[in-house]
Specification:
It is a single chain. This protein is of the alpha+beta class. The protein folds into 3 domains: 90 residues, Butyryl-Coa Dehydrogenase, subunit A, domain 1; 109 residues, Butyryl-CoA Dehydrogenase, subunit A, domain 2; 137 residues, Butyryl-CoA Dehydrogenase, subunit A, domain 3 (Up-down Bundle), CATH 1.20.140.10. It is 44% helix and 14% strand. The protein contains 11 helices and 10 strands. It has a 4-stranded mixed β-sheet. Strands 2-3-7-6 form a 4-stranded antiparallel β-sheet, with no helix packed on it. Strands 9-10 form a two-stranded antiparallel ribbon. Strand 2 and strand 3 form a beta hairpin. Helix 4 crosses helix 6 and helix 9 runs antiparallel to helix 11.
Length: 394
């Protein structure tokens, strides 16, 4: 198998790397939360990320996979892979509108009208409108299709009432892609619709949910007689489940775990136990080697997915394998970091005397959320069993 990139791809890499070197100051490349579920930055932190997004957008480096007519570069699948590699290598801050660009945008490409694409995509890419996802509810998390938020037709509008929970970025959001029940009498998967909702509409209330990490990036949302124009319906009425699955397939993607393994190796070199560096212990070395092997396997599985995309296959249930392996590996990595740190693992991020400024304890607290977001590990196992392995439903 040939993993070499073409000269055109390498030229793309050089162009992006040179731009990042010229435009990303060294002091902005430090990201202690490289593997967080949802690190929340408010005030100056949020404004810096927003400014970085706008700078990337002005230079044409946002949503490079979009068609040029919608503000992208028509980048190939391989170039998208290189793009993520180079942003990771440079330690670039995360863009502020991933919910919109990575989930809503591709969904509108597939299911939306041309009017919807031209209305929402330009402002989405420019971060002039921030998006959030309205899926989970207090009684409908893993069993999302049981959702109860209702939308009733009233002339040219849907009137929405209900509650959503675990909504990332809702406190910043201008728009929400919302799943609602439009036919209560239909089977639960067939009576759902996918709406685009203005978060500034009368009747929308957002309340923060504080995580174990202390972050407030999650929220709960309440909709009380919120009027949504019918032109904001994506796809056909009552076919929202199929539309939502398109968004979810783009959400369940893994990150490269090798840099985190390397950080863990550096931590083992830094710590001492019984007068010797921790890395000198055979158990520690064997555990780190196992993590490195798993990270490498995940990397090559990602390349297999890349090959599928190059052959024209859309994201499918195999993405559940990637998501499950990634989140489980991350959890094991963070637990082992706590083992290495010993008593120092009790010090929180930013605490005096905390090793690596306490980033490992932060990551450990956030790791459980990774196994819940975008479909729990239990849901991923069901998908793998039924749709990949062909096992009967339990």
């Amino acid at each position: 198998m040939d993993f070499k990139f073409s000269e055109a791809d390498e030229q793309f890499r050089r162009e992006l790397r040179e731009w990042l070197e010229a435009n990303l100051p060294p002091e902005d490349r430090k990201n202690p939360f490289a593997i967080e579920f949802f690190a929340n930055e408010e005030g100056e932190g949020w404004e810096k990320r927003l400014a970085w997004h706008k700078k990337m957008h002005a230079a044409g480096w946002v949503a490079i996979h979009y068609p040029k007519q919608y503000g992208g570069r028509d980048a190939t699948v391989t170039q998208q892979y290189i793009y993520q590699q180079e942003l990771s290598r440079a330690g670039a801050p995360q863009l502020v509108n991933s919910q919109g660009i990575e989930l809503v945008g591709p969904t509108l490409m597939h299911w939306g009208t041309e009017e919807q694409r031209r209305r929402y995509l330009p402002k989405m890419l420019a971060a002039e409108e921030i998006w959030c996802q309205g899926y989970s509810e207090p009684g409908s998390g893993s069993d999302l299709a049981s959702l109860q938020t209702r939308a009733v037709e009233d002339g040219d509008y849907f009137v929405v009432n209900g509650q959503k929970v675990w909504t990332s970025d809702a406190h910043h959001a201008d728009m929400c892609f919302l799943l609602v029940r439009t036919d209560p009498a239909a089977p639960k998967h067939r009576g759902i619709s996918y709406l685009l909702v203005d978060m500034h509409s009368p009747g929308v209330t957002v309340r923060p949910l504080v995580q174990m990490t202390g972050d407030r990036g999650f929220n709960e949302m309440f909709f009380e007689d919120v009027r949504v124009p019918k032109k904001n319906l994506v796809g056909a009425k009552n076919n929202g489940w199929q539309v939502a699955l398109t968004s979810l397939m783009y959400e369940r993607r893994a990150r490269d775990m090798t840099p985190i393994v390397n950080e863990l190796v550096a931590l083992a070199r830094q710590l001492r136990r019984n007068g010797s560096i921790t890395l000198g212990d055979a158990y520690v070395r064997q555990t780190l080697a196992r993590f490195a092997c798993e990270a490498s396997a995940l990397h090559y599985f990602g390349l297999r997915q890349l090959t599928g995309r190059l052959k024209g296959r859309p994201p499918g249930p195999e993405s559940s394998i990637e998501k499950l392996a990634y989140t489980e590996l991350n959890l094991h990595l963070q637990k082992f970091a706590m083992e290495l740190l010993g008593a120092y693992s009790q010090l929180s991020y930013g605490a005096p005397f905390a090793v690596d400024e306490g980033k490992w304890s932060y990551r450990m607290l956030a790791a459980r959320g990774m196994a819940i977001g975008a479909g729990t590990s239990e849901i991923q196992r069901n998908i793998i069993g039924e749709r990949v392995l062909g096992l009967p439903k339990g």
